[in-house]
Amino acid sequence: MPALSIPGFESLEAALKHFFGYDTFRPGQQDVMAAALQNQDLLVIMPTGGGKSLCFQLPALLKSGLTIVVSPLIALMQDQVTALEANDIAATFLNSSLGAVEARERCDRILSGTVKLLYVAPERLLNEGFLNFLDQVKAKVGLAGIAVDEAHCVSEWGHDFRPEYRRLAEIRQRYPDVPVTALTATATERVRGDILHQLRLQDPHVHVSSFNRPNLYYEVRPKERNSYNSLYQEIRQQDGASGIIYCLSRREVNELTERLQDDGISALPYHAGLKDADRSQNQDRFIRDHVQIMVATVAFGMGINKPDVRFVIHYNLPRNIESYYQEAGRAGRDGESSRCLLYFSLKDIHTLDWLIDQKVDANGQPLENEQRVARQQMRQMIDYAESTECRRTIQLGYFGETFAGNCGECDNCRHPKPVEDWTVEAQKFLSCVARCKERFGMNHIIDVLRGSKSQKVLSRGHNRLSTYGIGNDKTADQWRRLGRSLLHQGLVAETTDGYPVLKLNNQSWAVLKKERVVQVAVPRTPEKDPTQVDLKRSEVEALFMRLRSLRKRLADEQSVPPYVVFGDSSLKFMAQQQPQTLADFGQISGVGQRKLEQYGEIFTEEIRAYRQEQGLPVVAAEIIEQEDLPKRRERPKSTQLSNTLAMTLALHQRGETPEQIAQQRGVKVTTVFNHLGELLEKGQPVVLEQLVPVDRQASIMQAIEQVGPDYLGPIREHLGEQYEYSEIKLVRAWWQQNQKA
């Protein structure tokens, strides 16, 4: 691929650092971006947390014109836009949550060319009125590309098929010269082919990353009478870290949430039976770390953009491996170590079977093909739960990826079962598959091996095969365990159309030719995990927790999720490297120019305070001033107001209340209060008495004097819940301005 010229930057890495604060690319990202910058169509398969979004976001900033991002859920697009805006990137979304005035304002901004990324749902994108708007955009500012997120939704073979995604091919027909990027975290080979076909990708650059998530630990436990106690202890050991618990039914979600709350665990429910406003509020509280646990059905997840989820627990068996991989993959998106725990019982199988029976057409007739495929996928999930082999090997094998085994990060590898040589038995099994012309499933092969006199065996003459009865020294369960192991190790294949027929592959013939040994793990009584003990925190971990608390306070003040301030990975780098100057702080991964200016001083002050308390060396104030002075001088100190602040000030001076200003401008009331606070800090003529009664002002200022002005949370805690954050923020802004005078 020819060398790329990046206008305004020495390299693609320099652009990455400038916009997002990262020093290096993750595997595969740079090649994908290079192809995107050359206007190629792309299919990008990257695991959750692998950096898919960056693959279209950075090219969008470096190309002229607007990039359209198709996203299936309102919550997902809002979260991504919030995160982009935190990096001072011009992104916006258009969806049903916006009022007419605000939507019109955003359209005007798009046509002016100031927006680089626009997030929309597929339904809106395909609306004729919106397509006419896009024609205007293309003519005035240009269309740089179309990114289709969660592209597996286009395929009937995917685990989350959405019919509206199928119509996205119409966009390719309308704009044949605009490059299309399709992205997903989960796609089997069959789904990948379907995406390429359905979206009409032309000579695409296809990138398939490893599906391996090495930072995730996988474990399966039997679901028994005392499983709740096990679950409760698991949560307690997480020391307040965020987690998601998945249940199959709304009833189970409600019951488990209530029980956890009764036991002092901060948990909220999420399912389709709740009102939209309640669901949205619960999700928002979880994202902002106001609650530790979200107990949810599978309705929760695709819209979640929270990188620091430390554990995901499935309290029931998932429908299929693809769903499990994606749901469990919501843990550890920031690359930090996280746990994925699955509880499994036979009762779950009956529940799933019932759910599969509900797949019917408009006339109530069974959708037999869908039911058949769903049952095959359920059997694969049961195999995973019951397996004694490396869980990572099974997961990756499902997606067509070979893994050497013994990952060291699953229960079966940490506490391995005894391994036996079953090469001879494997040769018998595979030979029987060949003798049966590769036209039957596992159960029939086992029947032939064990000499069954069933009608199916006898009617086909399989009792006359040389492999008939040669395996009657093993039980059906033993043969089934071998068959599953051969599938998991990739030593035999199985069709995926709902009729699970066994097929030989090159690895099968290697076994038959005695070129490969087959080893199979045999079950034993599970032992208690000796690693589950309380560990004393190191000094680094203590600082990390302190920085997390600082991050949450800042996030609360700004009404944004904590990860928008900094991700856990960046906080861990800070805790390890303990930068004390802005120059050093700017070298931390995840700290771009905008965040250096916005948060540098407050985080370095916190780090220096911690080091002083611990008796560690602290950089002298003179050195800090000398090193950081050039950066401080670079910061613009213009008192000129932006258009939006000037408009809010003008309406305030006319005597309008914040609520009236918000209604007239088509923005949220919280936005107006933020404007007024900023105006107060700038010394603008805001009449505080119009906004906060004098007696309440006095109480708030007294609290500020006693508690300190740094954080809103402690001030409100001192005052009580009868005081709103908005009025505290305004009085604090006035107080801080007067301290400067």
From TrEMBL:
<keyword id="KW-0234">DNA repair</keyword>
<dbReference type="Pfam" id="PF00570">
    <property type="entry name" value="HRDC"/>
</dbReference>
<dbReference type="GO" id="GO:0009432">
    <property type="term" value="P:SOS response"/>
</dbReference>
<dbReference type="GO" id="GO:0006310">
    <property type="term" value="P:DNA recombination"/>
</dbReference>
<dbReference type="InterPro" id="IPR001650">
    <property type="entry name" value="Helicase_C-like"/>
</dbReference>
<dbReference type="InterPro" id="IPR004589">
    <property type="entry name" value="DNA_helicase_ATP-dep_RecQ"/>
</dbReference>
<dbReference type="InterPro" id="IPR011545">
    <property type="entry name" value="DEAD/DEAH_box_helicase_dom"/>
</dbReference>
<dbReference type="Pfam" id="PF14493">
    <property type="entry name" value="HTH_40"/>
</dbReference>
<keyword id="KW-0547">Nucleotide-binding</keyword>
<dbReference type="Pfam" id="PF09382">
    <property type="entry name" value="RQC"/>
</dbReference>
<dbReference type="Pfam" id="PF00271">
    <property type="entry name" value="Helicase_C"/>
</dbReference>
<dbReference type="GO" id="GO:0005524">
    <property type="term" value="F:ATP binding"/>
</dbReference>
<dbReference type="Pfam" id="PF16124">
    <property type="entry name" value="RecQ_Zn_bind"/>
</dbReference>
<dbReference type="InterPro" id="IPR044876">
    <property type="entry name" value="HRDC_dom_sf"/>
</dbReference>
<keyword id="KW-0413">Isomerase</keyword>
<feature type="domain" description="Helicase ATP-binding">
    <location>
        <begin position="33"/>
        <end position="205"/>
    </location>
</feature>
<dbReference type="GO" id="GO:0006281">
    <property type="term" value="P:DNA repair"/>
</dbReference>
<dbReference type="GO" id="GO:0043590">
    <property type="term" value="C:bacterial nucleoid"/>
</dbReference>
<keyword id="KW-0238">DNA-binding</keyword>
<dbReference type="GO" id="GO:0009378">
    <property type="term" value="F:four-way junction helicase activity"/>
</dbReference>
<dbReference type="InterPro" id="IPR006293">
    <property type="entry name" value="DNA_helicase_ATP-dep_RecQ_bac"/>
</dbReference>
<keyword id="KW-0862">Zinc</keyword>
<feature type="domain" description="HRDC">
    <location>
        <begin position="537"/>
        <end position="617"/>
    </location>
</feature>
<feature type="domain" description="Helicase C-terminal">
    <location>
        <begin position="227"/>
        <end position="375"/>
    </location>
</feature>
<keyword id="KW-0479">Metal-binding</keyword>
<dbReference type="GO" id="GO:0046872">
    <property type="term" value="F:metal ion binding"/>
</dbReference>
<dbReference type="GO" id="GO:0005737">
    <property type="term" value="C:cytoplasm"/>
</dbReference>
<dbReference type="InterPro" id="IPR036388">
    <property type="entry name" value="WH-like_DNA-bd_sf"/>
</dbReference>
<keyword id="KW-0067">ATP-binding</keyword>
<dbReference type="GO" id="GO:0043138">
    <property type="term" value="F:3'-5' DNA helicase activity"/>
</dbReference>
<dbReference type="InterPro" id="IPR010997">
    <property type="entry name" value="HRDC-like_sf"/>
</dbReference>
<dbReference type="InterPro" id="IPR002121">
    <property type="entry name" value="HRDC_dom"/>
</dbReference>
<keyword id="KW-0347">Helicase</keyword>
<keyword id="KW-0378">Hydrolase</keyword>
<dbReference type="GO" id="GO:0030894">
    <property type="term" value="C:replisome"/>
</dbReference>
<dbReference type="InterPro" id="IPR018982">
    <property type="entry name" value="RQC_domain"/>
</dbReference>
<dbReference type="InterPro" id="IPR029491">
    <property type="entry name" value="Helicase_HTH"/>
</dbReference>
<dbReference type="Pfam" id="PF00270">
    <property type="entry name" value="DEAD"/>
</dbReference>
<protein>
    <recommendedName>
        <fullName>DNA helicase RecQ</fullName>
        <ecNumber>5.6.2.4</ecNumber>
    </recommendedName>
</protein>
<dbReference type="InterPro" id="IPR027417">
    <property type="entry name" value="P-loop_NTPase"/>
</dbReference>
<comment type="similarity">
    <text>Belongs to the helicase family. RecQ subfamily.</text>
</comment>
<keyword id="KW-0233">DNA recombination</keyword>
